[in-house]
Amino acid sequence: MTKEIYKNIWMSEIPLHRTPLKTINNYVIKDGKKALIIDTGFNHSLSKDAFFNNLSNLDIDIAQSEVIITHLHSDHSGLAAELYQLGAKLYFSGIDGKIAKEMGQDSRWKELEEMMFQFGFPKDANSFDTNPAKEYSTKSDFEYTVLKEGDKIIFGNFELEVVSVPGHTPDMINLYDRKHKLYFSADHVLDEITPNIGYWGKKYTVILNQYFSSLKKIYDFDIEVMLPSHRGIISNHKKRIDELLEHHEERLEEVIKILEEKNKKMTVVEVAMNMNWRIRAKSWDEFPQPQKWFASGEAMSHLEYLAYKNKINYEIENDIFYFSKK
């Protein structure tokens, strides 16, 4: 269902096949037959049909429209190539855009499979072939205009300022309309659920620390309505940011406690399987493989942060990461 949530801003929930998120909030700023569209859904018929049905209901011509992709994840960028081929103008941040273009390449997933081995997964368990992040990613090439901090996109009565908020991905962007006090938070700030903060490799140093900085960066923004990519609209962003920061502090304490109680060198996977997760599974063995990947990536981002703060020990042995208490 598509509903007008603010004058000339329409929101629809795009279904996401085979993922706990279930839907993504797709935003359309309408100006006649033209639209400024924020994010797309998966490269899957379920998302695609809903996306184009919503545009049809709004009488939008995609060839006259512009699409801002807030970050590289497939639920946000899956239809990027198809929309580009239909004539839409695409916007992306530089780094996330580059990675999104690589999502259809096997070399990208081989790197991630190697990372899973470094986390402590056996090599034969590291295939991403059935992972929605790969399966429903954009597969064809596309061109895009790079957006960076402070850039402004004027569309209709709105002036959207680009805000760089690395953390959930290396180069995620948000959009802020100061006049209307509207803020499109993508997956930076979500209500009810906490954004996954995974590990992106040594190239993107201490990503959890970057996420903390990005949360604090927007804390004092004058925002009346925050529009996230999943779940409900947020009316008190400061309260929600405080809750997210508290959540990660509790996570960090949990990781330290696990290392102290086990009193041995532990792989990322060993730490992850001892953490508490909100998932319908009785044990780690019952986790779907994609959820093991997400959980281990989040465990690693917290371990990396604690090692950066010199609160735990970190070493690499036979290409596998190990952590232990101080």
Automatic annotation (TrEMBL):
It comes from the Bacteria. It holds the Pfam family Lactamase_B. This is Glyoxylase-like metal-dependent hydrolase (Beta-lactamase superfamily II). PANTHER family: ENDORIBONUCLEASE LACTB2 (PTHR23131), METALLO-BETA-LACTAMASE SUPERFAMILY POTEIN (PTHR23131:SF4). SUPFAM superfamilies: Metallo-hydrolase/oxidoreductase. Residues 238-269 form a coiled coil. Residues 23-230 form the Metallo-beta-lactamase domain. Keywords: Coiled coil. The lineage of its organism: Bacteria, Bacillati, Bacillota, Clostridia, Peptostreptococcales.
